[in-house]
Amino acid sequence: MKKLALVSSLLLMSVLFLAGCTDEPSPEERFAAYTKLWNKQDFTKMYEYLSPETKKEISADEFAKRYEKIYKGIEVDRLKVDYKQPKEEKKHKDGEKVNLAYTVDLSTMAGAVSSEHQATLVKEGEGDEENWYIKWNESYIFPQLKAGEKISVQTYPAVRGEIVDRNERGLAMNGTVSEVGIVPEKMTSETETVKKVAGMLNMSTDELNGKLKQSWVKPGYFVPIKKMSSDNTAALEKLLAIPGVSVNNTEARIYPYKEATAHLIGYVGEASAEDLEKLQGKGYTASDVIGKRGLEEVLEGRLKGKPGGKIYIKTEAGEEKVIAEKPAEEGETITLTIDAELQKDIFEQYKNEVGSATALEPKTGETLALVSSPSFDPNKYILGITKEEQKALEEDSRKPLLNRFSSTFAPGSTIKALTAAIALKNGVDPNEAISIQGKTWAKSTWKDHSITRVSDPGVAIDMEKALIYSDNIYFAQKALGLGKEKFTSGLKAFGFDEPLNYDYPIKASSIGKIDSEGRLADAGYGQAQVQMSTLHLAMTYSAFLNEGNIVKPTLLTGDKKEKEIWKKNAITAEQANTITKMLTQVVEHPKGSGHGINDLGIKFAAKTGTAEIKASKNSDGTENGWFVAMDTENPELLMAWMVEDVKGRGGSHVVIDHMKPVLKKYLK
Question: Which residues form the Penicillin-binding protein dimerisation domain (predicted)?
Fold first, then answer.
């Protein structure tokens, strides 16, 4: 009996199990599976859940493409279809039709779109084929959408933020330029018009014909050829006299200070495929312009702004049903600490010399100028630089595309003020004089190395005289006396081998490899492998006016204008004052290397420098000239300039001659 009861129980359980396996899914289960596919945007599989009646109205291909086209057009980057399936199966009054509530949340180009819906499921089929299917229509996409209606999109581009100087002078502005174009049907002679226009716009006839033969061009259309500055009225008038030529005004980025600020500000251009890949997920499209170099690139995120848009349905009656709308947000207007007129004056004083310059407000650290010479006109990239113009820039031996103020160079004798400061910090007596005979000196243990100075003053040299006469031998001996560890740690206290925490990428100054006594001696007077930027050099000299503290340089203005310290106590206040007094003698002493600015009648501290640039020890290289100058009684301006290739032209005095008019204009 027990065996029979057990068998009966097992049979009953098997029947129940098989009955459960063949039960049809509930409408809730079916719709939960459908929404899961929807969240994955698997529209092809979603179609399988539609009712037979719905499938008569729309094909699988049409269904999938409808969703894909709409979601792509409104730029959906987040989709959440939310259906809360009940834990327990409900009993429905109508066994053939069920309504289930769900919500759809989208993130689109016009902002967030959220909508509530009712899905209708119907029971279709017979026997084993019976199941629940979705009775779909266009309102499942958007509640406002009806059959036959289309979703339209209107974009609101963001206005790019502008860049201005400390006095609100424009450095990168949104302005208007003239766009020269041709209306094909108005040309009396196509060959003649193309030839004349190409010549006046510095283009090839092939390039111009290529624009006229674009697939979209029709006889009555205006075909844009090239942009020109609206100030070029004479050329525009000549172009307008040619049959078929027309000129429209169009918005464009303008750089009023042209070459003077090109390396600092940069320029914008159309986003390339590479740019779009790098900026993926940040809302950029192929029609956007982005910063290509300089602050336009560095500050791209703040300047770009946020585009807006509108998603709407236009009915047959011509009415608009707005689904979502978001206004564009303008980019930020960014104010720099730069004085644009000072920047321009420095650039113009370079007079096509090759080099770089930095100007700081020494007490606050505000950057007043960052100059690289030679340069280029960034407006040409906006108006459409030709291949020939670009090639000329790239092949120019003076390298006008190279940003020199962000690069580093051997500082020459300008480092001697730092060597002197490090010596004081390590207990060297500045009044202790050394006697050196002649212009050349070498340690007895050196075989093929020696130190040469410019001249033999014929007197014993203490620290002040060494700075006045810029004596290489004195500072070489001081570096050797300090030893590698103390000397390099002293340089690191001034910020060498450390990235600059700055609003523009500047290469860090470096000590290089000091693996011999000869290199240590050379480093003491700015040779060997020591490298500095003009910005960092100016920063280190700020310590002499700030009680031994190096100010943190700023480039962007903010709510606070209080000075920040980058390096506290690089040297003591007493040591800083001692060096400053010595540097004033570089200017005031008749034999001082910076005496050329003494007649301005301003209390200056300054230091010259000449750095040899050689490919090898025995090669005949060139020289770079340096000059650092700062007013000391009421410090307003600290400048560090470097000019390349001054050998045989007066060395560092070339730099003094170029800097002097700027010092006179801004401090006199």
Answer: 157-319
Alpha helices of 403-526 — where are they, by DSSP H?
416-425, 463-469, 472-493, 517-523
Q: Quick check: helix, strand or coil at residue 66?
A: helix
C-beta atoms surrounding 349 within 10 Å: 19
Burial of 408 (0-12, 13-18, 19+ CB in 10 A): buried
* CATH number of the domain residue 632 falls in: 3.40.710.10
Whether residue 348 sits in one domain with residue 301: no
- Are residues 615 and 568 part of one domain? yes
Residues 6+ apart with CB under 8 A from 661: 345, 349
Query: Are residues 531 and 516 part of one domain?
Result: yes
Q: Are 326 and 315 in contact (CB under 8 A)?
A: no
Q: Is the pLDDT of residue 75 over 50?
A: yes
**570 plus 644 within the same structural domain:** yes
Asked if residue 451 and residue 317 are part of one domain, the reply reads no
Question: Predicted confidence band at 5 (pLDDT cuts at 50, 70, 90)?
Answer: very low
What region does 20 belong to: left with phi over 0, alpha with psi -120 to 50, or beta? alpha
Asked whether the predicted pLDDT for residue 93 surpasses 80, the reply is no
Say what the pLDDT of residue 94 is. 60
Annotated catalytic residue, options 51, 178, 406, 413: 413
Cα(353)–Cα(359) distance, integer angstroms:
18
For residue 279, the enclosing domain spans: 163-335
Q: Given the DSSP bridges, would you call strands 367-373 and 245-254 parallel, antiparallel or unpaired?
A: unpaired
The total number of structural domains that make up the chain:
3
Q: Strand, coil or helix: what is 290? A: strand
**523 near 480, Cβ under 8 Å?**
no
Decide if 1 is inside a domain: no
Radius of gyration of the chain (CA): 37
Is residue 327 domain-shared with residue 355, that is, in the same domain? no
Residues 6+ apart with CB under 8 A from 380: 389
**pLDDT of 7 strictly over 70:** no
Distance CA 93, CA 98 (A): 9
Q: Give the integer Cα–Cα distance in Å for 203 and 209.
A: 10
Same domain, 466 and 320: no
Nearest to 480 by CA among 440, 449, 521, 516: 521
User: Is 516 marked active-site?
Assistant: no
Contacts of 428 (CB under 8 A, 6+ apart): 463, 478, 481, 482
Number of residues that this document lists for the chain: 668
